Amino acid sequence: xxxVPERVRGSLDWGSYANSFAHRLVHxxxxxxxxxxxxxxxxxxxxxxxxxxERARSNREPFISDPQLSTVYRLAVALNVPPAxxxxxxxxxxxxxxxxLTDGSRVERELRERLGKDADG
Length: 121
Prior knowledge:
The protein has 121 residues and is an all-alpha fold. The protein has a domain at 9-88: 434 Repressor (Amino-terminal Domain). It has six helices and no strands. Helix 2 packs across helix 6 (104-118), helix 3 packs across helix 4 (47-55) and helix 3 crosses helix 5. The protein starts with 5 loop residues before the first helix and ends with a helix. The model has no long low-confidence stretch (mean pLDDT 87).
């Protein structure tokens, strides 16, 4: 990801959190057996928006996705998961960079376990 000046992104390395969100979104979508198109339809979004979120990209500067809270909730409803499943590092004080970047397999394992328990909805 391009190096975004601190004056633009603030003290948080938002790109790392955007990547963690993207990783979670892709993983849950695939576990649910949905295409980007199907997820977009269910969530009332455009497929390009889902694609951008899954790549942690935006069409506007600083070119890092930053979904609105309503978008996160729409995705959670469409995926039939609590919004917390999509949000990285939700139960911890936030370091400058998302620690999920270094341990994505832990996140995938955790989501598989949770979704297995929630499969009946």
